[in-house]
Amino acid sequence: MKKLYYYLLPCLLFSNAVIAQNENNPGSNHGNKFEQLGTMLSTPNEYRSASGAPGPKYWQQKADYEITAKLDDDKQRLDGVETITYTNNSPDPLTYLWLQLDENEHKKDAENQKFDESKMQSKMSLRQLQGIMGHDLDLGNHIVSIKDVNGNALKYTINQTMMRVELPATLQPGQKFRFKVTWWYNISDRLTIGGRGGYEFFPEDGNYLYTMAQWYPRMAVYSDFQGWQNKQFTGRGEFALAFGDFKVNINVPADHVVGGTGQCSNYAQTLTTAQLKRWNEAQNATQPIEVVNLNEVKQLMKGHSTARKTWSFHAENVRDFAWVSSRRIVWDAMSTRVDGGKKVMAMSYYGPEAYGLYRRYSTKVVAHTLRSYSKTTFPYPYPVAISVEASNGMEYPMICFNYGRTEKDGTYSEATKNGMIGVIIHEVGHNFFPMIVNSDERQWTWMDEGLNTFCQYLAEQSWDPNYPSQRGPAYKIVDYMKLPKNELEPIMTNSENITRFGPNAYAKPATALNILRETVMGRELFDYAFKTYAHRWAFKHPTPADLFRTMEDASAVDLDWFWRGWFYGTDPVDISLDSVKYYRLNTKNPANEATFDRAQFDRNLDNISTKRNKAAGDKFTVEADTALQDFYSKWDRFAATPMTTQSYQAMYNALSPDEKKLYDTKNFFYELSLTNRGGCVSPLIIEWTYTDGSKETETISAYIWRHNEQKVTKVFAKTKEVRSIKLDPERETADIDESNNSWPREMAPTRFELFKQQTLPRGATSGANPMQQSRKTTP
Ligand SMILES: [Zn+2]
């Protein structure tokens, strides 16, 4: 299949037939913004239903791990032996398995060390230069052996970050295969080499913080929608992982504290009596209790034990396992209850440099996140949730690494505090997407980052209504949507190919979901449908089509136009209110219409020449000679006469009751002409301000654009006279140009500052004065 695809590719690229197939109904005159996605989505089958739910024959593979790892704190090296039990639940016989060797991303000859563009700049950081020069370190996985349970060596081939293990016999559907991998690698310095796991060295006390992630050879995903996941790990596109059960023994220096995915079964052996007592107290605590406290950590930091301890963890139904180890971490814990009343231990691990922030906030933010996400999706199913301060932001099942350190004096800025709260919510939130709703991150960053950032926004806003959320509110995406088209990519772009990663894969999908919830579907329909998606795909592997289909299936809202505009397109929303025409009904009632008719008539008589003639004091003949005056000189052509009144009455009396009602109500008609300048179709939200000062807002569905995607005209009947009209008054549609949203046009209030033009000496290119500065620092 794959070969065929590559052979066909060159000719298909230039074939209109393929483009036509990808753009459903391209020949339509109205455009295709409202056409169904059709062939752009995968065909439903018995594994994935057209409703967006897993099909009757849905299957997924299972990978269970038993791992023993040994951390060498002197050499910064990790050794491991793991036994993997792989269960083939697919209908396909397998002759080989693929594993992921993610540490190979750091190898000096790795593809990803060379495939990025680079340019020399007048100012270069050490990190930038190191990126260009590369490193000469022994990094990457060393596979010592791969054997079956009988000790027979298995043949394997390493292709960069992937390893194919050949099976001694075909693994039939329903069968299990157990094998053992022995490996080691040198742990990299996370702050200079980069990456999601590694060590951080603290020169002031000579200790290390190890945050161990992607640390063991992991099974790749084999699925119904793409076979073996075959995209290499480059450091960018995250992970595709199978669910399984873990038993992990971690051997570390005896003075280290270890936290990890799952539950530890031997705290009695690893903690002191006092610490164990505090751990037991924490089981029912509603405030965080320091299991390992700051004083103990300060003592531990001074020593360097040569004794060893093993911490034993187990975790069920997780897609990965990560851990932290150091002698410089405080550990606090408290119990919390999520939707459904289930108890979860919320915990944090942090160094002294984060104590001033993490002690007060971290564990409580963990607990808040679990409660908020449990309400939005499903009750958090795992027994623990951990936040580790590691000066970054990275997520794993039940454990995540975040930032938030204080100044030496314990103070911190508001930005650090808010950033810390946001990152903890975000990374703990990843437990739901993608740790449980297990999408393929290597393919679709937005499926976990976008959905998670949306839920993060909800959690931030229920933490504090004044929390300055950076992503979620529609108006916050405007600057990104305003960029030139060639700088934008659709959300439906593979992770590796995205330019502007943050706005594309985090902010835009989060904003789109927020617009769906607040503006397009409404909270009730959206919340039910989003929850349905989360329930359907918890502990399974969803694809984008499963989300798109479920959101429609559970709400009866056709959203194909929305997915097209926001997820497959790059067009922004910019609706312009071009003109407003105002109509009143001519009742023909002389008593009511005389004033209006007279005003129109007089306006025509009162032209510029007449006005100037009068102003010049001209003598008019018909005024000077009164003999010229007759009936018509004084006649009011608009005054009601017995005859006109009678004829109006006759006409009125002949009307039906409904027609009479229409005549009697004062009606004003406003014809609005609008153009879709941005391209992305969007509902019309119209705020009417009446001459009596009252306001009314009404919403017209985006369907108004379905026959003409560029221009629409619509008439609105009002019983009060309108003073002004404003589109999208709450800035909820991400309209990129608000200056064309109002009638009459409003002047946008903008400020500028007046400053004195600085004149630089001839030849100077900057106002800075290094000579003066150097004098100031010289004693
Ligand atoms: Zn994230």
**Which percent bin holds the helix content?**
25-40%
- How many helices? The count is 22
Amino-to-carboxy terminus distance: 75 Å
Name every ligand kind in the structure.
zinc ion
What does this structure look like?
The protein is α+β, with helices and mostly antiparallel strands. It is built from 22 helices and 30 strands. It has a seven-stranded mixed sheet. A six-stranded mixed sheet has the order 16-19-20-21-23-22, sandwiched between helices. Strand 22 and strand 23 (399-402) form a beta hairpin. Helix 7 crosses helix 8 (414-429) and helix 10 (445-463) crosses helix 12. The chain is elongated and about 130 Å long. Mean pLDDT is 92; it is low at 1-22. Zinc ion binds next to helix 10. Residues 756-779 are annotated as: Disordered. InterPro entries: Peptidase_M1_aminopeptidases (IPR050344), Peptidase_M1_dom (IPR014782), Peptidase_M4/M1_CTD_sf (IPR027268). Keywords: Signal.
Write a brief caption for the model.
Residues 756-779 are annotated as: Disordered. With 779 residues, this protein is an alpha+beta fold.
